[in-house]
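Render Transcriptional regulator in 3D.
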Amino acid sequence: MPDRNQGFVSADEVARRAGVSRSAVSRCFTPGASIAPKTRARVMAAAEELGYRVNDLARGLLARQSRLVGLVVSRPELGFRAHLVAELSRALIRQGSIPLIIDTGDTKTDLAAACEIVIGHRASATIVLSGSPPPEVVALARLNGQPLVAIGRNEPEVDTVHIGNEAAARTAARRFAASGARRLGLVGSASATPMIVEREAAFLAEAALLGLPLAWERGADSDYAGGRQAAEALLAAADPPDALFCVNDLMAFGALDVARRRGIDVPGALQVIGFDDIPEAAWEAYRLTSFRQDPALMAEKALELLARRRAAPELAPMTLRLAADLVCRGTTRPLP
């Protein structure tokens, strides 16, 4: 056995152990290549014994193509985004691709490093997720001819997978009105990502159509702390809302904890609807009514768009818009 401190097992070592040529090892691991069954068996036995695996990076460089797919995202650990990154990674691995998760960070230095990785590693395609990855990343990928899919972003001339933010936010306002709410509240976020802006704008517009007064506060970010911050301001008012639409579940959790600390009955005196339906929304501590985004379905559709773009680069960009169904739990009252 080779010394493990010497690095990865090479094809030359496998050839020596199997008693065959280096080219025979190469043919054995090249799909469709011609090799005698007995030779293949000897090579595979030697490879298994030594722990050899094909150098995919070197093979990709020789073939001038890579199996890497860049997943470009800001704050990939946050809320629904974390579940979407996980589903995309699993789906890419199942199809034989290698996910390369690139956090664009918060500074110009971080952004420059992210751009360098996207192009420098010759990723075969790029998927840009919701959040706020700067447009420079999208522009650079397009300039280098990479197939590109955006999820939850309105990028011109790019294939996109979108959730029905506007329809869901309007449904939330109508649901509150139908259940007897008389003063609406909006827990928004100063992060102002494309998806959040769509939800905020649609909820405001529908509240105006319904003729219901509305109070609106934005937290500093679209996380639990931001939800607490916005809810503190809304619920401390002289005439507080009796229904809150929160632009994501993390903010809704913060709002619910503020309400409980203030002794507000949920859903009797205050109804709350979130967005994303992440697994924690079903926890007994929250039992949050929320609009469902299915990360597995979004990943599936994104990879379908990538396959379509690779097969026919000349096709016009396509937008797939998925519905967000309302999952009712304990933070809203039943409709009459």
